[in-house]
Amino acid sequence: MYALVDCNSFYASCERLFRPELKDKAVVVLSNNDGCVVARSAEAKALGIKMAVPFFEVREFYERGQLQVFSSNYALYGDLSARVMTTLEELVPEVEVYSIDEAFLGLSGMRTEPDLTELGHKIIKRINHWIGIPVGVGIAETKTLAKLANYAAKHYPQTQGVVDLSKPGWRERLLKKTDVSEVWGVGRRTVEKLRAEDIYTAADLARADAETMRRRYSVVLERTILELRGIPCIGFDEQPNPKQQILCSRTFSHRLTCLQPMQEAIREYAVRAAEKLREEKRLTSSVSIYIRTNPNAKFEMKYANGATYPLPSPTNDSRVIMKIALRLLQGIYRDGYRYMKAGVILNALQPEDNYQADLFNPDLCTTKSLQLMKTLDQVNQRFHRGLSFAGQGQKQDWAMQRQHLSPRYTTSWRELKVVRA
DNA sequence: TCTGGGGTCCTAGGACCC
DNA sequence: TCTGGGGTCCTAGGACCC
Less crowded by CB within 10 Å, the N or C end of chain A? Predict the structure, then answer.
């Protein structure tokens, strides 16, 4: 048996935690650059604000004082997420952290618990009491059904936040009244095709012939169908797999029209990506970058391009990655466009303690390089932006806008001035 | 005027091997 | 006239997730 625990309107709930006067108020949290809505309190949903709409489309509510708005504060959400996960780990033996706001629980070792619904309520109470974040709990025989149970727990208030689909008859009833688009793994494209063949509800999908559907769609959809029938196809993974790709990309605060700030941005993203790489204890042997104009603009010249450089020998050295990224930029940058976004991607990742070196090229992981990076990271862990490379830019006025950022309630950096003192 | 960031998995097709 | 069978590896692109 699995449970899925999912925090309600997670980012919005985090913000409200420190602003109790906003309880029962419409609250939204915006994406980076204050671009789109990425989290909505129930009251904001009631205003008709849809997920992922551009902020300018709902700005009116804000200006009329009907809507409280926050820029995303990932340091805060990450910190509260860790507290939620730790609390779950104290309650059940197996926890798979699935995203910042949800976790699958393995309940097989919980045979002594008389009633799983009771366990669900215990989880809700504990997390609410200890952390103050509301959660919902879905329980079922497969992950896909647990997701669906969780959806029901949030959707139907009479469940009080807990749905156990293993109860006789519950699964059939829920599948019948749930739109197929709510099923985990069934996205927009697939929904369109399914409707064309008269599959509208989760029950319709569960009834479809799995073999035929694999041929017509994919093995992924076949697995979803089996999971809806209670046959587990997706395993439980307590230890997250090591990352296969690391990406750092940002939309600029305003469009960039010349090379110099683009170079600063690429350097900055390369350094950030290299930092993440070292955090993961991995090396990269492939550096890619991409740049693009606004794909949504109707009356603008569009340009998007990317480039990749495979390294002969793997590295985690910010300097090497930065230099390569910059050279790649020279190759694809074209004058005359209004650039909106750029990114640096590291691929072909290998563990740092067991990597494939090159027979004919010098090993880039020299003691000197490793030591320097270690020192760089140690300084920057204690002092925010304590050490950076000259070319990253000091002012960075292309960096994202966060006009509605909340304070660092639970995290703190020592500022650079401490170093100077 | 104004639209995020960071990932995973699967498939088809090309190039290549014996 | 007529040209096999069985594989692997890599990449780009699509679909999906939160």
Answer: C
Average pLDDT for chain A: 90
What is the side-by-side order of every strand in the sheet holding A27-30? Answer: A37-40, A27-30, A68-71
Q: What's CA A266's distance to the chain center, in Å? A: 22
Residue A309 beta carbon within 7 A of nucleic strand C: no
Is the C-beta atom of A301 closer than 7 angstroms to strand B? no
Each residue's pLDDT tens digit, A14-61:
999 999 999 999 999 999 889 999 999 999 999 999 999 999 999 999
Q: Is the CB of A241 under 7 A from strand B?
A: yes
- Whether nucleic acid strand C comes within 7 Å of the CB of A213, the answer is no
CB of A186 lies under 7 Å from some atom of strand C: yes
Place of tokens 């509510």: A61
Angle between helices A367-382 and A318-332 (to 10 degrees): 90
What amino acid occupies position A57?
Answer: E
Q: Which of residues 84-143 of A touch strand C (CB under 7 A)?
A: 98-102
Q: Protein A216 CA to nucleic acid C1 C1', in Å? A: 38
Does the CB of A130 sit below 7 A from strand B? Answer: no
Q: CB of A343 within 8 A of CB of A245?
A: no
Domains plus CATH for chain A? 9-73 (3.40.1170.60), 77-228 (3.30.70.270), 246-392 (3.30.1490.100)
In this structure, are residues A7 and A134 in contact, taking their beta carbons and an 8 Å threshold? yes
Which residues 160-219 in chain A have a CB closer than 7 A to strand B?
Answer: 218-219
A36: left (phi over 0), alpha (psi -120 to 50) or beta: beta
Residue A166, exposed/middle/buried by CB under 10 A (0-12, 13-18, 19+)?
Answer: middle
Q: In this predicted structure, what is the pLDDT of residue A111? A: 63
Within 7 Å of a protein beta carbon, the nucleotides of strand B are: 1-11
Burial A394-411 (b: 16+ CB within 10 A, else e): eeeebbbbbebebeebee
**CA-based radius of gyration for chain A:** 24
